[in-house]
Every structure is written in structure tokens, then in C-alpha cells.
Specification:
By secondary structure, the chain is of the alpha+beta class. It has 7 helices and 14 strands. It is about 15% helix and about 20% strand. Bound molecules: fe (ii) ion.
Length: about 325
């Protein structure tokens, strides 16, 4: 197996063509060596046999989420393989893409990647403790080139490049994460929405702003931005909360830093691409596509089980 690294236009990630993947068991090491991002083109066999995506997911960890059991709307779940979460604008899923950035391009004509011009940066399911490790995302029917890219930012490189004072501050702090549906995001508060009462399985969860990767030992920024953080009591525990608070300003400064183009890889999808990313050290964002004209179907699985020492023996916050 000969990974080609880094990915084009980025300083991290690696590509391994499906034909070169002789031994699935070697993939987790390759993922760690690539800084948490692997592109495996040519995995069209998954479209024919969706169970293959689940078997591949198990290579990265024993716990592959079964979306029948985790309060997930069933129109988002694959009809026969409940470990596959469907991301699509087609029925029955009908999930619409994020809005286009305003303006749609940067002054030099590029796809905006940096927060706050680009919105929606997050790490998957950070509103759970322990949070998941790895996501696998497969292009069944991708959008045309130039639409629906997935953006990845390297939280390890971003952490290492922080000025010493910000690094020392981030090291000591926890973010407060919560599901988008809780109505506690920054935009929810600005729109004056009343946050709904949250049940015991959907409570906001504290996560360190800097996580130590359990495999590589490297430190990486771990955060989301306007959505998926609790802007009512946070977004940073112990700092002034709210949309104009000191915690929000610090989070925004970290997010602007971490999403500079130098830390970002932009993935243009081709049918049959499988992308594997490590949520413990990367953040990612979806981009717009023309959902009126384009039908897009993507399959995702989520792998957990190795969140690191600070989560040892913790019960799962989202299960009864
Ligand atoms: Fe995501």
C-alpha cells in the first residue's frame, strides 16, 4: 500500500487508490500517519454492497453506530443497513445543503473556506460524551465538480501554529457543545428564539478545546462554531457567555485561525470516493450545491470507542 501524501493543495491527508488497498487492517495506521484524513477513490463496490461500508468502518473501531438506536430520524437512515446515515436532498431524506456564503467567492475568486465567511465548521456529534472517533463518507451520487465540496481543517497544525498565549489559554478551557436542534446556537439566540427544554439524553456536554489524540499523542483544537455549541451558557465554560461574550470572541478567534486556507483541504467529490476522517483532530464543513437541479446521495458511518484517557469508563451521555 503506497499512500500519496499530502492531498492536493493541502499539507495533510493522503490518497490510497482502492486497487492498492490490499489489507484493510493497515488503514488505521495510514489514517493516523496522514494526520487524520484518507481519500480512497474507486470504492464503487460499496454502492453495490452497502454492508461493505460497515465492514470497512469496523476496521477503524469496534463501535459502529446503529442509527436505529440513537434517536435519529428514520428518514435519514439507510433502508436495509442501519449503520448508514444518508445525507441526501432526495426523498425520503430531503436534507437541504447549507446556504451559499455571502459573497459566494473570495475577492481572488476562490471558494471561501475561512470562518466567518465560511460557516458550518464542526466536528461530528461533539454534543455527545464520549464523542465519536472516525467518520466515513461515501459518494453514491455526488454533486457536479464545483458544488458540495467537503472542507477539512487540520486541528493539529492549527493548534501548533497558535501564538503561545492563545495556546496556553485554549489548553485550560472546555467548550460547551449541544445539538443544533437544541436552539442554543448563536443564530438561534440572535433571532430571539426561546431554547426548548432539553431531555436528560440531550444535555449540553463539555469537551476540552484541545484534545490529546489517543493514537498519535498530538494535541489538536476541538471545537465547532455558531451551531453545535451552547451560546446560552457558553460557548466556553467559565468565560462570559452569550453572543457578545468573551467566550464567544475567543472561540471566533480560534475558528478564524484554524480555518485559514493554509490549514484547509477542499475535497471535490467523484462517484465512488470514500473519505475517512478523524473527528478528534480535524474539523469539517459542508458546502452549498444547487438542490433544485442536482440530486446528491452520500452515505456516512460513525465509529467510536477510542476517545482518549479523559473519557475513560464514562457512560454514554445520549443513551438511557
Ligand atoms: Fe459532519
Amino acid at each position: 500500500m503506497t499512500p500519496v501524501a499530502p492531498l492536493p493543495g493541502a499539507t495533510f491527508g493522503a490518497r490510497i487508490d482502492a486497487a492498492d488497498v490490499a489489507d484493510f487492517a493497515a488503514l488505521p495506521r495510514a489514517l493516523a500517519d496522514a494526520g487524520g484524513l484518507l481519500l480512497i477513490p474507486g470504492m464503487d463496490a460499496i454502492a453495490e454492497e452497502p454492508e461493505l461500508l460497515v465492514r470497512l468502518s469496523r476496521v477503524f473501531g469496534a463501535e459502529v453506530e446503529d442509527y436505529r438506536r440513537t434517536l435519529t430520524a428514520q428518514n435519514m437512515v439507510h433502508a436495509t443497513v442501519p449503520e448508514i446515515f444518508v445525507v441526501s436532498n432526495t426523498p425520503p431524506t430531503l436534507r437541504m445543503p447549507p446556504r451559499r456564503p455571502d459573497p459566494p467567492l473570495t475577492p481572488d475568486g476562490r471558494l471561501p473556506v475561512q470562518f466567518p465567511h465560511r460557516r458550518g465548521w464542526h466536528t461530528d456529534q461533539s454534543y455527545r460524551r464520549p464523542p465519536p472517533d472516525i467518520s466515513l463518507f461515501f459518494a453514491v451520487v455526488p454533486a457536479p465538480t464545483g458544488q458540495a465540496q467537503t472542507l477539512f481543517a487540520d486541528g493539529t497544525a492549527a493548534y501548533e501554529a497558535l501564538p503561545p498565549d492563545m495556546k496556553a489559554r485554549a489548553d485550560r478551557l472546555d467548550g460547551i457543545h449541544v445539538s443544533l436542534s437544541a436552539g442554543r446556537g448563536r443564530n438561534d439566540l440572535l433571532e430571539g428564539k426561546t431554547p426548548r427544554a432539553l431531555g436528560p439524553l440531550e444535555q449540553p456536554q463539555r469537551q476540552p478545546l484541545v484534545r490529546v489524540h489517543p493514537v498519535t499523542g498530538k494535541r489538536a483544537l476541538y471545537m465547532c462554531e455558531y451551531g453545535q455549541m451552547d451560546w446560552l451558557d457558553g460557548p466556553i465554560a467559565g468565560m462570559e457567555p452569550g453572543v457578545n461574550g468573551e467566550g464567544g470572541r475567543f472561540l471566533e478567534a480560534l475558528m478564524r485561525h484554524a480555518t485559514q486556507p493554509a490549514f484547509v483541504y477542499v475535497h471535490e467529490w467523484t462517484k465512488g470516493d470514500l473519505v475517512v476522517w478523524d473527528n478528534r483532530c480535524l474539523i469539517h464543513a459542508a458546502t452549498w450545491f444547487d438542490a433544485e437541479k442536482v440530486s446528491r446521495v452520500m452515505w456516512r458511518t460513525t465509529v467510536s470507542g477510542n476517545p482518549g484517557a479523559i473519557y475513560a469508563n464514562e457512560r454514554k451521555s445520549w443513551l438511557p
